[in-house]
Design goal:
It is built from 20 helices and eight strands. With about 450 residues, the protein is α/β, with parallel strands linked by helices. The chain has three domains: about 80 residues, Four Helix Bundle (Hemerythrin (Met), subunit A) (Up-down Bundle), CATH 1.20.120; about 180 residues, Rossmann fold (3-Layer(aba) Sandwich); about 140 residues, Orthogonal Bundle (434 Repressor (Amino-terminal Domain)). An eight-stranded mixed beta sheet has the order 3-2-4-1-5-6-7-8, sandwiched between helices. Helix 6 links the parallel strand 2 and strand 3. It starts with a helix and ends with a helix. The chain binds guanosine-5'-diphosphate. The site of guanosine-5'-diphosphate (GDP) has 19 residues, from helix 5. One of its GO terms (molecular function) is GTPase activity. Pfam families: SRP54, SRP54_N, SRP_SPB. One of its GO terms (cellular component) is signal recognition particle. Belongs to the GTP-binding SRP family. SRP54 subfamily.
Length: about 450
C-alpha cells in the first residue's frame, strides 16, 4: 500500500507525545526529528522537509493550548495542516477554454502512464460532463503507442485522430485540431511522445507542439513510484514547457510518498489528478487535505476533533470518560453515544476519522452503516432498563425476546452484544492511556 512506511513512522513519531499534559522542548525536538527522518526516508525532497519541519516546530512552539485538545492532538493537527499546505491546500480543477475545444496536451516519460491517463481523463469528461473529446496520437516513434491509444479509444468510445508514424508530430497535431474544429469536439487531448529520459530533441518537439496548439492545459504525467526522480522529471519538463498541472500515477502501488509530497512544493505546479489503478475509472481528483489525512493514517481526525468539540459538552464528556474508566459503560451510554455521533454525520465517515480505529480488529466487523445503526438502536430500545444497565444479564432467552421485539434476527442481536462488549473493553483500555484518538471522540 502507498505511504505505508511513512504513515507508520509519522504515527510512531507522534505517539511519543500521547497522554502528555505538557510537551517539553525535548519532547518536541525528538518528535520533530522523527518526523524529519520519516519524510526523508519516504523520499521527500530535502529542502521541502527542512521547511516543513521548521514551520511545524514554530507553530507548535507558538500554539496556545486549545480548549479540550491535548498537546499530541494539537501537533497532529499542525502536521496535518502543513502536509496539506505542502501539497497545495485545495484541489485545482482542469482549465477550461471559453471557446471549444479545450486543448489538453499530455507529456511525460515513457511508461509513466501517459496514454492510459489520456484515456482515463477523456473517459471521465465523457461520462461525467457528457463531453465529446478527441484524442490525437502524436507519438510517432513507437507504433505500439498509437495502437495503444486506438485501443483505449475503442474501449471508452472516444475517437482517435492518427496519421501513423510517418508524419511530423506537429503536423499531426495541426490536422487533428482542424478535425476537432470541424466535428465540434469540446476537448482535444494530445498524447505526445515519451522517452526514457528527458532529452533535448523531445523537449524541442513538445515546445513546437505547444507553440502550435496553444494548449489550455499542459499536464505532466509522472509515476509516483519513482519518488525523487518523478520530482526531477517534473522540474525538467516544467522548465521547458511551463506545465499547468501534474497527474501522479500508480498511487495504488507501494510508493513511499516522496513524489506526492514534494512535487507541488518544488515545481509550484498543482497535482490535479491521481491514477490509482490500470482501469479507465481509476482516476481521482487530487485533494491535498484528504491526502494529508491518508498519509497520517488517521482519516480526517481534524474534522473529528472539531466536530466533537462542537457537539459535545465538556461535562457530559467528562462523565462518560469516568464511566468508561470505571468500566460501567452500558447500553444507555452506548445509545447516547450513537445519538451524538449521528448528529455529527454519516457513521462510516466518523469511524474513519478516528486514528487507529479503521485498522482496529475490534472494529473490523463493527456496524458502520447508518441503517445498521438504526437497527442497533432498535435492539437497544427493546431491552429493559435492567438489561441496558447491566448487559451481563442478557441470557439466550432475553436475547430471543429482544430479537422478536426489535424485529431483528437473534444472530444480529448476539453479534451486536458481542461488538458492544469488545468496544467497551477497548474503550476502557484506551481510557487508560492507550492513545488511539478515542479521547477525541470522548471530548477529552
Ligand atoms: P506511457 O508510456 O506513459 O504512455 O504509459 P502507459 O499509459 O502505456 O502506461 C504504462 C503502464 O503503466 C501500463 O501498464 C499501464 O497500465 C500502467 N499504469 C498507468 N497508470 C497506472 C496507475 O495509476 N496505476 C497502475 N497500477 N498502473 C498504471
Amino acid at each position: 500500500m502507498a505511504f505505508e512506511g511513512l504513515t507508520e513512522r509519522l504515527q510512531n513519531a507522534m505517539k511519543r507525545l500521547r497522554g502528555k499534559g505538557k510537551v517539553s522542548d525535548a519532547d518536541l525536538r525528538d518528535t520533530m526529528r522523527e518526523i524529519r527522518l520519516a519524510l526523508l526516508e519516504a523520499d521527500v525532497n530535502f529542502d521541502v522537509v527542512k521547511d516543513f519541519v521548521k514551520t511545524v516546530r514554530e507553530r507548535a512552539v507558538g500554539a496556545k493550548v486549545l480548549e479540550g485538545l491535548n498537546p499530541a492532538q494539537q501537533i497532529v493537527k499542525i502536521v496535518d495542516e502543513e502536509l496539506t499546505k505542502m501539497m497545495g491546500e485545495t484541489e485545482v480543477p482542469l482549465n477550461k477554454s471559453p471557446k471549444i475545444p479545450t486543448v489538453i496536451m499530455m507529456a511525460g516519460l515513457q511508461g509513466a502512464g501517459k496514454t492510459t491517463t489520456v484515456g482515463k481523463l477523456a473517459n471521465r469528461l465523457k461520462t461525467e460532463d457528457n463531453a465529446r473529446p478527441l484524442m490525437i496520437a502524436a507519438d510517432v516513434y513507437r507504433p505500439a503507442a498509437i495502437d495503444q491509444l486506438v485501443t483505449v479509444g475503442q474501449q471508452i468510445d472516444v475517437p482517435v485522430f492518427e496519421m501513423g508514424t510517418d508524419t511530423n508530430p506537429v503536423e499531426i497535431v495541426r490536422q487533428g485540431l482542424a478535425q476537432a474544429q470541424e466535428n465540434h469536439n469540446d476537448y482535444v487531448f494530445i498524447d505526445t511522445a515519451g522517452r526514457l529520459q528527458i532529452d533535448e530533441q523531445l523537449m524541442n518537439e513538445l515546445a513546437d507542439i505547444k507553440d502550435l496548439a496553444h494548449p489550455d492545459e499542459i499536464l505532466l504525467v509522472v509515476d509516483a513510484m519513482t519518488g525523487q526522480n518523478a520530482v526531477a522529471t517534473a522540474q525538467g519538463f516544467n522548465d521547458k514547457l511551463d506545465v499547468t498541472g501534474v497527474i501522479l500515477t500508480k498511487l495504488d502501488g507501494d510508493t513511499r510518498g516522496g513524489a506526492a509530497l514534494s512535487i507541488r512544493a518544488v515545481t509550484g505546479k498543482p497535482i490535479k489528478f491521481v491514477g490509482e489503478g490500470e482501469k479507465m475509472s481509476d482516476l481521482d481528483v487530487f485533494h491535498p487535505d484528504r491526502m494529508a489525512s491518508r498519509i497520517l493514517g488517521m482519516g480526517d481526525m481534524l474534522s473529528l476533533i472539531e466536530k466533537t468539540q462542537k457537539e459535545y459538552d465538556e461535562k457530559q464528556a467528562q462523565e462518560l470518560t469516568e464511566r468508561i474508566q470505571e468500566n460501567s459503560f452500558d447500553f444507555n451510554d452506548f445509545l447516547d453515544q450513537m445519538q451524538q455521533i449521528q448528529k455529527m454525520g454519516p457513521m462510516d465517515q466518523i469511524m474513519k476519522m478516528i486514528p487507529g480505529m479503521a485498522n482496529n480488529p475490534a472494529m473490523a466487523n463493527a456496524q458502520l452503516d447508518p441503517k445498521d445503526m438504526d437497527h442497533t438502536k432498535a435492539v437497544i430500545y427493546s431491552m429493559t432498563e435492567q438489561e441496558r444497565t447491566n448487559p451481563d444479564v442478557l441470557n439466550p432467552s432475553r436475547r430471543r425476546r429482544i430479537a422478536a421485539g426489535s424485529g431483528r434476527p437473534v444472530q444480529e442481536v448476539n453479534r451486536m452484544i458481542k461488538q458492544f462488549n469488545q468496544m467497551k473493553k477497548m474503550m476502557n483500555q484506551v481510557s487508560k492511556g492507550n492513545f488511539s484518538g478515542m479521547e477525541g471522540l470522548m471530548g477529552q
